[in-house]
């Protein structure tokens, strides 16, 4: 068996009907689950990867897209784990298209947030000249998950955060009624607030954000 075949075989072999329903309910029934918890899933992936390391290292982008064709969320999560393991030392300029394809397929907060922070965030640290064009594209998209990515991709940037860009994204979305956008703005502001609390407090107080955004942004400041 090749990597994909063996991984799918091992995941299915370790499926648990008992865990399936609560996991699907937690994700609002947007995806089918095999019922494999995170620690077990990562152990399975690690063991299969060790047997097919060279194959995966040389083809992880292609393999991730193959895995994304599955209906099971654990398989999507394995794909993301693979990508982030290898791409952090292997970013290529054209990866902006690859990462976007992952963001808009099988989209939900768990996949989008991880890819936004470690994928897009990591990519833009390597290719900072791509930042404004890529984030403008995401920000102006009709895809809400790309909009969310434009807001949260700087999570963990600390002093390297482009606060002017973050403020612009928050102001642009300040009237949004979308839960995931309001939450994203609050989260991104709270994250930067750990580095510059006064700047975040002043920005929030001077603008008319929705209650959820304000609550999330100031949770650790006031």
Automatic annotation (TrEMBL):
It comes from Flavobacterium indicum (strain DSM 17447 / CIP 109464 / GPTSA100-9). It holds the Pfam family DNA_alkylation. Transmembrane segments: none annotated. The keyword Hydrolase applies. GO terms for molecular function: hydrolase activity, acting on glycosyl bonds. Keywords: Glycosidase, Hydrolase. It comes from the Bacteria. It is an enzyme of class 3 (hydrolase). This is DNA alkylation repair enzyme AlkD. Its EC number is 3.2.2.-. The keyword Hydrolase applies.
């Amino acid at each position: 068996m090749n990597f994909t075949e063996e991984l799918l075989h091992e995941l299915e072999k370790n499926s648990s009907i008992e865990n399936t329903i609560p996991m699907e309910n937690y994700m609002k029934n947007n995806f089918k689950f095999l019922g494999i918890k995170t620690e077990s899933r990562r152990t399975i992936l690690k063991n299969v990867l060790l047997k097919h390391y060279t194959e995966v290292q040389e083809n992880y982008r292609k393999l991730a897209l193959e895995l994304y064709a599955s209906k099971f969320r654990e398989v999507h999560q394995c794909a993301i784990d693979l990508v982030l393991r290898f791409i952090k030392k292997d970013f290529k300029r054209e990866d902006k298209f690859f990462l976007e394809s992952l963001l808009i397929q099988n989209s939900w907060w768990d996949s989008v947030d991880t890819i936004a922070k470690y994928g897009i965030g990591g990519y833009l640290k390597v290719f900072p000249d791509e930042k404004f064009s890529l984030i403008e594209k995401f920000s102006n998209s009709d895809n809400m998950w790309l909009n969310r990515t434009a807001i949260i991709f700087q999570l963990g940037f600390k002093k390297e955060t482009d606060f002017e860009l973050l403020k612009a994204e928050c102001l642009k979305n300040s009237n949004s009624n979308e839960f995931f956008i309001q939450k994203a703005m609050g989260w991104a502001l709270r994250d930067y607030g750990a580095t510059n609390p006064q700047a975040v407090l002043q920005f929030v107080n001077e603008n008319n954000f929705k209650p959820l955004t304000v609550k999330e942004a100031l949770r650790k400041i006031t």
